Each structure stands twice: as C-alpha cells, then as structure tokens.
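Please predict the structure of the following assembly.
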Amino acid sequence: MANKKGSEKEFSRRDFLKTTGAATGGIIGGSLLGGLVGFNLNDSSGSESQTSEDTASEESSGSNGGTTDNARMFFHNDTDFDTVTAAMERIFPESDVGPGAEELGCAYYLDGQLMGQYGFNSKEYMQGPFEEALPTQGYQSNLNRRDYFMLGIRKLNEEANSRHDANFADLEAGQMDEILTDFQEGNVDLDVPSHTATSSYFFTMLRSATIEGAYADPVYRGNRDMAGWKMKQFPGHQMSYIQYIEDDEFHEIEPLPVYGMGH
Amino acid sequence: MATTLDKVDVVTVGVGWTGGIIAAEATKAGLSVVGLERGVKRGTEDYQHVHDELKYAVRYELMQDISKETLTFRNSPDEKALPMRQQGSFLLGENLGGAGTHWNGQTWRFLPYDFEIRSMTEERYGAEKLKDERGYQIEDWGITYDELEPYFNTFEKTAGISGEENPLGGHRSEPYPTPPMLKSKTLKMFEEAAKGLELDPIMMPSANLSEQYENPDGQTINACQYCAFCERFGCEYGAKSSPEVTVIPKAQESDDFTLRLNANVVEIITDEDDDSKVSGVKFVDTITGEEFIQPADVVALTSYVFNNYKLLAVSDIGEQYDPETGEGTLGRNYCYQIFGGASGFFDEQFNTFMGAGSLGMALDNYNGDNFDHSDLDFLHGGNIAITQTGARPILSNTVPEGTPSWGEEFKEASIHNYTRTLRVQGQGCTLPHRDNYLSMDEDYNDAYGVPLVRLTYNFKEQDKNNSAFLVERCAEILEEMGAKEILKDGELGDYDIVPYQSTHNTGGTTMGASPDNSVVNNYLQHWDRDNLFVVGAGNFQHNSGYNPTATVGALAYRCAEGIIRYAEDGGRLE
C-alpha cells in the first residue's frame, strides 16, 4: 500500500544519472560515464540499454500512472512541498480506517493539477474588472490558483515560523490544527485585499484538493494503490452493476482504475 | 466582411435536443436544414473511458468553456452584477448534443396544473392566492396539457422512456414505450415507507433504458448497465437517450441536413425590407475567426436558455423587460429550481455506488395542486424522490450534524457513511417574481465582444416556504424507512451561485396567449417576427417541481410542427 516511503529510500543509479545529467545520453560520452565514482557503467554503446534495464524494476514497483512517486512538476521548493504535504495530512490524516493524505499522495496530486487547466483557471472567466463581491457571487479573485495556493502555503509556513519558531511541517499536530483552523475561519491576513485572496478561501481550496487527491483516479497521482477507494469501499470504475442492482446484500468489489475497465 | 452562404429553408442555432428534433422533423417534411453548433462533434465513441469523477464531475469536461462566455449575476436589481467566473450552481452544456449529453435522464411531464396555473389557482382559491401585489407574476402558458399531450408522447417514444403510469400525473394517450428500470434495495425501502404513509410512489420515468429499444425513427438505444456514471458524463453504451443517439443521426440520414460545427451565432438578422421577418443569422467560425451569414426562410433558436435570450437581446428583437415599469417581456419570468430534503443515516450498508441517473422512485402527492393549499403559505410544491444515481467518492461526503469538516473525525465519518446515507429530496417548483429576470450586462463582454447576459435572481418567500414544507415531508419518509439519524436541509437562504444546485434554468423567452406577457406564441413563434421560432426551457412561464427535459422535448416537437406549417403556408400560426 505504502510504496512512497519505499521508493524514497531507493536513491538509485537512475536518480544519480538524472541529477548529474548523465542520463541524457549522447551529451556526455561513454568514457566519461565510465569514470564516474561508484557507477561502473560499461562502454557508451551499452550504457543506454543497461540504464533502462536497471530502472525497469524500480518503475514497476514504484511508479504510478507513468511517473515516479516522488517526481514533482510544480513545487520546486522543498519547504513549500513539505508544508502542503503536512497540511493535507492534518485535513485527511492516517487513522484506523486507513492511510492519510501523505501516503495517498495528495500533495503530488495537487502538484500535477497546478500545472494544468486547474492551476491556470483556463476554462474560467478571468477578465476584469475584479471587484469586491457578495458571498453569493463566488470567486472574484484576479489570481489564478497557482498564485493563490502559493500565497496560502507560504503563509502557513510564515505563521508556523512566527508562532513557534519552526517550519509548519515540523510542528506538533495540535499546533498545525490551530493554524489551519485560523485559516479556515479567515483569521489570517494574507497581506492582500480580501477580494484578491483570503485565508478561508485558500483553506477551502486546500480541503477540496485533499479530498480530490484521496479519491481521484490514480492517473492523477493521488489515491495511491487505490487505497482511498479501498477505504471507502468504492469499486472505482466497473463496466456494469446490472448483475447486482436488485440485490439486498452489500457487495464488496475490488476497485479498478479508469484504464483498467476492460474496454 | 462576412461571407454569405446559400439560403436554406431552416437554420437551427444549436444542435442539442431541440435543434436535433427540429432538424429531424423538418428534413422528414422535405425541408433543407442547416444546424449551427458552436461546439465540436462528440458521441458514444468519445465516452469509452468516461468513468473519471475528477475530469467529468469535478472539472466539468463536457461543459461550456466559460473563459469565453459566461453571465453576470446579482441577487437583486439594486446590486452590482459580477461575472460567474466558475461554473457552480448550474452547469452549462457545450458541443454537439448540448446538455442532453450529460443529463441524468429523469423525464417527467409537467402537470396539467402547470400550464393553467393562474386560471386554476384563481378558480380554486380566489385571485388573492396569486399574490400579484407581492410581485409574483404567475401566468398561464397559452397551451393546455391536453394540447401538449401528443407532443409529450412523441418525445417519449423518440427517447424510449422507461416508466410506469403515475396515478397523480396527467392523462396519457399511450403507456411508456419501455418498462420501468430494475428496483434496488433503497428504492424498495422508499416504496414500502411511502405506501405505509398512504402516498403513491412510482418508478421514475427514465431515459436510461430498461431494455434495448428501436424508436419510431429507426434509431436504437441500448439497455442501461447501471454503471452509475450518468449526470455530467456521456454514456459509453449509448443506453442513455441523448440527441447524439436519436434525433441527430436521424437528421443526418437525410441529404437535406447539414451540420456545421464550430459555428457560433452572434446575431439574428432582421429582414431589411420587412421588419416582421428575419432573413438569417450571422455566425463566427470559432476555429478561423471568419464571419458568415446564413440566410434562411426560418430561423429556430435552439440553444440554451441564456443564449436564446441573449441572441434576441443583442439582435434588438422584442422589448426588454423592465422590473420598474413591468413593461417588456424579453427576459421576464426567469425561474429556477429549489430543493428541500433530508439525509438519513443507517447502520446497514447499501450499494450506493451502483445505479443510474434516473434510477429512482418518486411521488407527486405534494406536487402541483395535488394537495390542498388553502391553509398553506405557498402554491405548488414538488416531486419527492429517492434516487440511486451512483454516489462517487470525491463529491459524496455527507456526515451527521456536528461532525467537523476536516480532520480525523471527518475522515472516519465520511467514509463510514458513504454507503450508509440515503437522501430523500423534494424538487420544488419556483414561481416567477418581478425582480427575477434576465437583462444584458453593461460592463462585461464575451470573447466575441458581445455583452454577457446579466442574471438577477433570488429565492422569494414562496420558494422558502415550499422548500421548508418539502423538507418535513422527506424527513417523515426517512423516519418511516428506519433511519437512525436524520439530517434535514436548512432554511433556504439567498440564492448562491457557487454550490451546485440544478441545471434547470427557465424563462426569459416565455410562451403565452398574448404578446403582453410572453415572447412567443404556443407554436413558439416569435410575436414580432413570423419566421423566428424560439424553443427551450426559456419558454416556461414558471418552473415546475420536476426536471424540465420532457417538457422541453414536447415543446420542440410542437415547434417543429409550427415550422413545417409555416414553411407551407406562412403567416401567424394559431
């Protein structure tokens, strides 16, 4: 179930090659690769195929929808990512019934979302003028969600720094909850006009993203091992229930992802 | 400079249920039809991997791209309207098939009372019950149920609706074309409880078909598999009646039908020589940006409520409604849908994740004027139902009262109750009010430089009292069903455009017997332009306690008949 922790420990040859740029093949010659300390690769003609063979086992054990578990696209700063990971875990914590947001990969889900349509509000009306709204008039911010989330995440950590002289991710659960509650209730000033951003609306988005990350199809990088669905006894995406629909008894059905539907 | 295309007999603006029905019927009558659809083509082949709650139900994959066009909203005429920047309260459709692609398929006929609500209310309770002086603008529709019945029947046969006789509904000339759907346990519980309370539950009339069916046009609709992905999704089986599996392919069988995609109509053109007629429409190709004129003998506005209204307003056809003076009819009597219900928590687990969009049982004992309103502070009522549409995990997190909205307690309670919560809900009518209307915004434009529609809407006393009444009736049923705890909906507050409520927007281009209180006559022919027809839920003078599609479909068949008659004889239709 928890493959994230396992894969983090596997600092592999592939990771090394990636961080050094060696995996980009033709740029660095084989003789140079062969001289790298601790990685005795063979000659250049064999390095590429061997790399892919070596990583094949890692990918099958630690991959999810074609990405490695701990790959990120949006969050480049580790403190930001740790902050949002910790905050999501408080919103949807590990408990008797099963894993929490961290193990489910909710922050990776958000990382992917902020790179696309959701992050850029690209299917939403974003033309000005932007004005103070009544609560019934909905989102009127000039910010897209990428910027809105970053304002909120940085502020979570600033609050942790100023209240406890520590990073948010290092706080006790109760301390995190206190800060999150203040965000939820709109008690934290994000240092921008309220129609631009409020802590309470940031919290609303963070809560929604956490639940989405727990239960969206694994192709979106959360709901790892479909553990969110298993906890909730949601069978994912079945072709048909016509064979069960009239039954009085409850059916426990192993979940399937969208692209496991058997079409 | 716009390019002028060859003239056709009929042009439809939008190709969903109403445009598809008119295209199918007009081509059968030998007329040439161009269907202008601003979206793209789509069909069953596009829905083979559709069971993705995030993409379709949360991110609205099948819905309108409102970065290009939305509307502005305010609760009352003295407030500043601001753009609806994200879809929420209702979900506007887009592309071939329109909202008919992603509907649930609950296919109710409105009641006889609905069409003659003003006369019948006055007759039974006296004129004071209409509360005109409080701003209510309740109107007859200019057509009776009996006049519309044959068109309801035609629509149901086209769509193959699965259902059973409703003892509290209007007269039917024929039974439903297919038998009702299968009954799940939760439906059986509702049925037993309702009968115990001496109510009259029936299986919900459904466009998710109980068996494979070939309609009179020769189109086949498949049998529903209860896969639980209907509303906001397209059907991977072609088992949910939609325009793409019925009337659109029927029209496409004819060489007289041309479907033009990516064609966004921006203006209806009034005839230069005769201002009682239109000469065609102007549209923009959304791919190339080129402008075209499509001349036609008949123009049929067959897009959604807001866009039908908008095209009339920007084309200066008809008089805009003004709430101050009460003058004008265009934009008048916008209505919506209210709900009043309750959630019941049980110890037992149910297969809540299975189902279909219109798998449900319902009763009309508290709908229309099926019960005595003499001592009640509202008119009409609502259809009360239990549905098993398929609860999905992101959007199904009902928890008992007092549970926090996040943290361990929320997580445990939302997971525990996911399969242990049943909802009984009344879908209430809304009645028209002076201050609820459509007009054109003065500050915000769409991507084509055309102003946005401005919606002014709030719930009124009538709606709040109706909702509160329905809540109590639903709670009674849940108690009878054995719920261990019941969470009742709170009082209806101000209308809020953020949370999803219903895509049952109505009015603004109303129908009636007189141009004094309506935009079109009962053939949906515009009062000021003989060859312009406007059809859809915009024709409703109020919204009933039901889903609107059957009534929209019936009006579309009525409209098609009017267009064919007009094409033969011309003039005013009566």
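Residues 23 and 193 of chain B are 45 Å apart (CA to CA). The radius of gyration of chain B is 23 Å.
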